[in-house]
Fold this sequence. Notes:
mainly alpha
Amino acid sequence: MSHLSHFFVHLVDVAGYPGLFFVMLLGNIGVPVGTELITPTAGALVATGHLSSFWGAIIVAVLGEVAGASILYAVGYFGGRPFVDRYGKYVKLDEKKYNWLHAFYQRHGAKTVFLCRFIPVVRGVASLPAGVSQMSPWAFLGYTALGSLIFCWGLVYLGHTLGMHLAALAPWIHRLSLFVVLAIVLVLVLFLSRAIIRGRSKSAAP
């Protein structure tokens, strides 16, 4: 576990539910807190009595995720084209890519937002392009909340089941998350490739 992740785990242990909410919020505005370790830690803290409620930990974690994701989404949504014009060059986002991104999220944004909820690192910044592309706010919130609920429930349950053994098994959780990342990235690549091929076929058709 990195020193930064260890600090945030300690913060949740000391501050309880407010600390959990704050850490999950930070993890969804791009801060590398390691939410795939924070959530099972919350479950372990429930098992050891440091946190009082299994579902309370899940709800607080989900609320923190949705709050953080909404902040990043709002930055992109209200920044819009001026935001892209000013900062797009730093991530090689030009007008052509912006138009493609906008069209893609209008058509496939729900699936993309939902799947990104399960990818470490990516899940912390995926809300920004959704906002920049002007994806429907209600669709964004709905699929973000659904994905976060599944993600948080699964990992809090895992931590609750492992209890005191969580620290020893943390490296294995990291490895497992890498396999999950690779699997989801592969699905996304195939999905994007299919969407691009279909788009080119339609544009080439008379």
